[in-house]
Input
Amino acid sequence: MMPTGIRARETCGKGEKSETRFAQVAPVSQVTRSLVAIACLTLLVSPLEAAEIKPQRFVMPNGLTVLVVEQHALPIVQIQALVKTGSVQDPPEKAGLSNLVAGLLDEGTTTRNATQLAEQIEFVGGALEAKAAHDFTTASTRVLAKNTALGFELLADILLHPSFLEPELERVKKLILGEIIAQKDDPGVVAGKAFSQLVFDGHPYSWPVNGTDETLPAISRADVQAFHAREYLPNRTILAVVGDVSVEEARALADIHFGAWQKGPDPARSAASPAAIDKPVVQLIDKELTQTTLVLGHLGISRTNPDFYAVTVMNYILGAGGFSSRLMDSIRDRQGLAYGVMSQFEPRAEAGPFLVSLQTRNATANQALAGVLKELHAMKAAPVSAKELSEAKSYLMGSFPMRFDTTHKLAEVLCQVEFYGLGFEYFTQYPKWIEKVTGGDVLRVAKQYLHPDRYALVAVGKMGEAKLKQQ
Amino acid sequence: MMPTGIRARETCGKGEKSETRFAQVAPVSQVTRSLVAIACLTLLVSPLEAAEIKPQRFVMPNGLTVLVVEQHALPIVQIQALVKTGSVQDPPEKAGLSNLVAGLLDEGTTTRNATQLAEQIEFVGGALEAKAAHDFTTASTRVLAKNTALGFELLADILLHPSFLEPELERVKKLILGEIIAQKDDPGVVAGKAFSQLVFDGHPYSWPVNGTDETLPAISRADVQAFHAREYLPNRTILAVVGDVSVEEARALADIHFGAWQKGPDPARSAASPAAIDKPVVQLIDKELTQTTLVLGHLGISRTNPDFYAVTVMNYILGAGGFSSRLMDSIRDRQGLAYGVMSQFEPRAEAGPFLVSLQTRNATANQALAGVLKELHAMKAAPVSAKELSEAKSYLMGSFPMRFDTTHKLAEVLCQVEFYGLGFEYFTQYPKWIEKVTGGDVLRVAKQYLHPDRYALVAVGKMGEAKLKQQ
Output
């Protein structure tokens, strides 16, 4: 939430790839030329094999699951903890509790105040942070390899021994309230929050992770302490260690700094899944803006849904495929209605949202809405072309290694692979799972998971100009 | 410029480190404990040395400078070209020209249309992009190592042979215009653009890189073609190749794909440097917002200014030091006026801007402004403490390797090190140059480069509530 200031201007130029559709001649000659060029250079190519991700996993006596990946290219170590609690565990009238707890972790421990924590990590050029999401909370540190022990020590200290002093509690609550108020000026966030309320009505996914200006003041120090005592347990935590560290060193440091963490009983969990809406619901939010932000969607899938990979391919073709998706082709390139448009499934522990979002001139909001609904219907009506299917799969397979091209990203992915129980074969099998998706799978999941007849729609803009009509 | 939608909510929780100042006891016992822990683990530590950046550099007969860094940890290759032209070369009445040229590079070449370019790169899961900045333009591609030859081929094709067809020109102009219009809803961008106009009045840094809705329509295809022919020359270009590629392979591929690029005469350059303003100038922009965005600053320094390192340390203490800067301590932690506040020097080829930016409630705008000016005066009035100096230097030295922890970041830094003529000793000497900065240096550069008596100030918010007074 730092103000962007002049920096924003630096990167705001149109400078990403786009495309036209006026000539679909397959560029065979160029591909052939490339293959020849590659063949010519085979003798020059580095003999090293492509790097593989082979995590080591062990469970400590207190139940803490530790994952280690050695990467010695840079003298950096990332240590990330994932605690299996998040805003879904907030009481509705105290929404924002898990986020407040996470925000207070580095505001002081029983042996270090906030200043000392900040100074110790900054003194070695490192970083220390914690944040809550819907289903889990992460706390992480990044240090130079020579400071790995300090990284373990500080991360363990904030997770195990936060002091939650009253002055820090009040100060952080005030900061989060300021953030919530500032978000009311951001049409994207306003639309997203309203959309979640419509789609997840009655389910914990309906409230914002950071709470509201009504629920946050209701949270007491006792709430924070009780939440931490109940939810932050080693047997509910995954620790990923990635970078210039050996498995033996990581194991020894985990033992030193996390070994004394006391196991506890698994907290009670309600089993309620979010329910689908059964007819279109629309919310219009009038603001004095030159553009209207549209968010349209409905319930999507959970991360453990076996259709995840088919849905990923389908959604790439629909609207996640950067500048070559159907939505971009229609809304941006052919109709010129928006600078960008995207669709996303956000899989969570339970079914998360599916949504399409865009910004368009107030006067073209109806045309953009019609364009989006048309593409959703089209995905369900007929199979995608062989070319679309092959391009989507090729992109998803080819770009897979770039999802963990930093220690930070890899530690995040590792934690989530463990959290969702995907198995480490994820790192080698993902391309094969994508490869196996057929055109029939894509049509089937489009029919099953896209619902242009019962969507939630939020529009934020000058409603007098947009004159939105339900379609 | 993709709409943020619901994603924004995922990461908006307060979850970064902060600090209080109520107890400044040095955490000696913890540091000692860490050192002991490290000592105990020495035998377990990986034997690999910290990675060093040792670029290979060669200049091709046509003047193209090629820099190569081998990194074989991941099967990824980043190829980045920096062309020594940017928005400073735009004619004032055609501001946005260099950005439009960059945006059109991947919209079609003499042998591939935009669709073919997008499909070829996406088919291998890669990325291809180009963007202009003030002093230079970058075009880059990222591919899996097995597709390195294709990466070279496509990057060379868009740099050497863009077709600039009329339909693409019109379409991209329309997209950039849409972006410019959308930016009018973003108070941070509005403030940044107004600030640049005040600070760089009469200098090319005064106009936005992406132009304005008046200048962009004035640009013709002939303008674009002439700009490209004059400015895009191998002898004005740096090519950085980073990742899972050998120096020999990079050299061979550069020769194949860039060898035929024709050298040309260096284009004429005007020598005008931006001039400092001599008294406070204020611009108030009234908008119906709950918060006021403030941007305050003046001319800063160029990247080649020998005081760069002392200014970096000084500015870290003032307002760039994350959550432990003086501005954060005063404006955020002690007065609770803003969620974040930062100061930055943005060094460019010529003196770039120095600015402080924050968002605060409309009603507290005057108090925040007073707080900022007070800290600027304080930096000039007295030396920083030994503790502040040591913490700043320690952070800057310790975090240095994280500035190039991806192939993408390293390729960017490499290009800029060459562009500014910093020498490759930058990668080994930066920590020493920071270490050498004294408290006397910090006070001297604060006195020389901070001007709280002749600033430019832009405020965007509800001006009737903010009632800003010049201070």
Notes: The first strand of chain B starts at residue 56 and ends at 59.
